[in-house]
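Supplementary material to the annual report.
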Amino acid sequence: MKFFLDTANVEEIKRVNELGLVDGVTTNPTLIGREGKPFEEVIKEITGIVDGPVSAEVVGLKAEEMIKEAREIAMWAENIVVKIPMTEEGLKAVKVLAGEGIKTNVTLIFTVAQGLMATKAGASYISPFIGRLDDISADGIKLVADLRKLLDTYDYDTEIIAASIRNINHLEDSVAVGAHIATIPGSLFPALWSHPLTDKGIQAFLDDWKAYEDKLEDK
Ligand code: E4P
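Predicted assembly:
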């Protein structure tokens, strides 16, 4: 199971990367906008920190615009993956880019049919959005499970990035249904290694150790 960080914040990436937990990074125009720095500068900084795939998204809507942007973005670093929105124009772009050896991550996938189209067009990654489906009372995890079944049944190489992860359940369920990758917001990471019973257990062990030492001293 690979972990990607779903952020464009360089400090956040550095912090989690120090723990050896970052296999890649995903960004989107919203996340880039939050940083208030030029797109190219942020992406180049991230690709300098992380060895794995770093997704950077196009903003054009026509295939020709996406292809032009993608070719430029792909030159910024070797580990770039170009994020392309799931539209008819996006599919056209993915096909051309795949032919040129440029890796793509097709984003905003909400149905199995969309995942299949993107895969057949030649996407390296597909990103089903779990949280946004759950927001409209649909089943985000079922989509990830169905996509995994699809890829295995027909032996496609495309990998699933479970995206729009908002809580631990989303992550644990993604693992259970076989997402290849989960992209996780930096803010969720501390919750992944913490548990109140762990903290309580540590405190109890320290208290018991103190009592034991006090007893030895009294002897
Ligand atoms: C990742 O590729 C997506 O852009 C991201 O996970 C979207 O998350 P959100 O639905 O919480 O904005």
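The chain has eleven helices and eight strands.
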